[in-house]
Specification:
Radius of gyration: 23 Å
Shape: globular
Strand content: 15-25%
Largest sheet: 6 strands, mixed
Strand order of the largest sheet: 17-21-16-20-18-19
Number of strands: 24
Number of helices: 16
Structural class: alpha+beta
Length: 573
């Protein structure tokens, strides 16, 4: 995701404590970290069915609409883009060609990017994939009916923000040019050295215009370009994938496509998932826990033996969990109130609610640990990261709220998130702020909090680094000009002229080292305005069945086990 210059190995060391041991017993020959957790669960073979056990269904099957880590992980099985990320351990942040022959050819100032498509690339029905299909899909992503997914491309291809999508404006974007079936040219509104990373986002999935009659039809009937296609789907219960007969492995250096089928099972209780994964019985030997369902903190003590650890992968810490404060709602429009909340929060309590030090690392800023140029800081220090109640009360009194106030906090219906919100309740109650939890269904959570009209005062959420840069970690979350009525990613709704100006200045810097340094400084400037409370970098633990191979944490897939990498060690079992 931007500068692909940090090896995944360093991320694994950051997340796992280093190492390179070999497990004994049931996990023999599995490479493990210093604490015995799997760095890779071992080799896989072709064939069989991999089961994915989860509590939560996918938000959307349309890649223009989904934006949470689990569904983005799923998309890689059925969709392809111009570029993607390497699927080799140690290279997960490296941008590589996918449907294009290379990662793009820029002009001198990085404002024009040209991509040439590979030969022999097809959709599931055998229709050839053409450059025009990318133009159509990108233009479709601006339609308000689907514009709730990733939006990194919008300010570069439509800086005016006026384009309403191809169904309302068939003339299309002048910034996207298709000179022939094999070539697509992007004319950006400003320089972007990391455009190949944007070309890897889900909205760059091609679709043929004549087979997409309306903006939401893909959500009901996906058209596969990847190695798998939809076989059956009962929402809330089960989704199965089978091989796409028109996917050509010689055109795809990334997806090994080991299994014949994938079966996603939804609606399971998280504690049931833990129990099934730990027990490792029957078909669960061929299963992994969903990206959305890492081990519960209560299960951690049950997996300390080598035979469990050797099939448990620690996620890479490239997601920041934080609490957003809606600056359009009072009293959160007052800087002193937001700063008071930053002082009041007991980060240690939040870490404990997340599962402790093995499952979360406390952070005081928004950039993830391996972002180039990042400089750690803490503007709201407290003894033991347990909160400075006196300082918080002082600021609340200055703001006219000596007895605190009442507010509602939105939270996703996932146990660890609810535990974090409850920890937040207890932290803020110490300074008189009484929080009411609004628990939202996990599959629709991001869609709801990304609709400003449905937001409450606060929200627990997370943001993963689509690539290692301040662009994806800071721009969508804090650019006030990108606030939209749906698909809004600036959950705090901060619209600060100084931040907006700095984002513009930094975005046109073509020297990546200088740009990274400026984003690191902006990271601090944003925290001075306190629109959010950074909480932690999750290092969740994700279990695989004993017959599942090639499971490893993938930095290019928000730190989870990449669904496309796994397979069965013995497909006959």
């Amino acid at each position: 995701m931007v500068a692909a210059i940090v090896a995944a190995g360093s991320l694994l060391l950051a997340g796992c404590g280093g190492g390179g041991n070999s497990a004994s017993g049931a996990g023999a020959n599995v490479e493990t970290d210093a604490q015995g957790f799997a760095l890779n669960t071992g080799p896989a073979q072709k064939g069989g069915t991999v089961n994915i056990l989860g509590a939560v269904d996918f938000s959307h099957l349309d890649p223009e609409m989904g934006n949470d880590g689990n569904v983005l992980n799923f998309y890689r099985l059925i969709y392809r883009q111009l570029t993607t990320y390497s699927n080799e351990p140690g290279k997960g942040t490296t941008v590589v060609p996918d449907l294009a022959t290379d990662t793009g050819q820029p002009n001198a100032d990085k404002t024009v990017w040209t991509f040439t498509l590979k030969d022999n690339i097809f959709y599931q029905d055998g229709t050839p994939i053409k450059a025009q299909d990318f133009k159509f899909s990108i233009e479709r992503s601006f339609d308000s009916a689907v514009a709730i997914g990733q939006n990194y491309h919008r300010p570069y291809l439509d800086p005016s923000g006026q384009y309403q999508g191809v169904y309302k404006d068939p003339a299309g974007l002048k910034s996207v040019e298709v000179p022939d079936d094999k070539t697509i040219v992007f004319h950006l509104s400003k320089p972007l050295a990391g455009f190949p990373d944007i070309a890897a986002t889900a909205v760059f999935t091609p679709f043929p215009a004549d087979k997409v009659p309306g903006p939401t039809s893909i959500d009901q009937n996906p058209i596969a370009s990847g190695p798998y296609m939809l076989d059956s789907y009962t929402r809330g219960s089960q989704l199965t994938l089978s091989r796409n007969p028109n996917w050509k492995p010689e055109t795809d250096d990334v997806r090994p496509a080991y299994p014949d089928n994938y079966k996603f099972i939804f609606g399971l209780d998280p504690s049931t998932i833990d129990q099934r994964m730990i027990s490792d019985q029957g078909e669960d030997k061929n299963a992994i826990a969903s990206s959305t369902n890492p081990l519960l903190a209560a299960s951690l003590s049950r997996i300390q033996q080598p035979q469990f650890k050797s099939r448990t992968v620690r996620n890479v810490p490239n997601c920041t969990t934080y609490m957003a404060m809606n600056t359009t709602k009072q009293p959160l429009g007052d800087l002193r109130v937001r700063q008071a909340i930053n002082y009041a929060v007991d980060l240690k309590s939040n870490q404990a609610a997340t599962g402790g030090e093995q499952m979360a690392t406390i952070t005081h800023d928004m950039l993830t640990p391996e972002v180039p140029g990042r400089v750690p800081f803490n503007l709201y220090p407290s003894e033991g990261d347990q909160g400075d109640v006196a300082k918080a009360k002082e600021l609340l009194t200055e703001a006219g709220y000596p007895n605190g106030f009442e507010a509602t906090i939105d939270v996703r219906s996932i146990p660890v998130w609810k535990a974090q919100a409850e920890a937040m309740q207890q932290s803020l109650e110490r300074v008189g702020i009484k929080l009411t939890l609004n628990v939202i269904d996990a599959s629709t959570y991001y869609e709801i909090i990304a609709t400003p009209a449905k937001q409450h005062e606060m929200a627990i959420t997370g943001w993963c680094s689509p690539w290692l840069s301040g662009i994806p970690l800071l721009q969508p979350l804090f650019d006030g000009r990108q606030i939209t009525q749906t698909g809004n990613q600036n959950i705090s709704q901060i619209n600060d002229p100084e931040i907006n100006k700095r984002l513009d200045e930094i975005s046109v810097i073509t020297d990546l080292d200088q740009q990274n340094a400026e984003y690191a400084e902006l990271n601090k400037e944003i925290m001075e305005k306190a629109p959010v409370v950074p909480l932690d970098w999750a290092t969740n633990l994700q279990m695989a069945g004993s017959n599942v191979g090639n499971a490893f944490a993938h930095p290019g897939r928000t730190g989870y086990i990449d669904y496309t990498s796994v397979g069965l060690k013995d497909p006959t079992k």
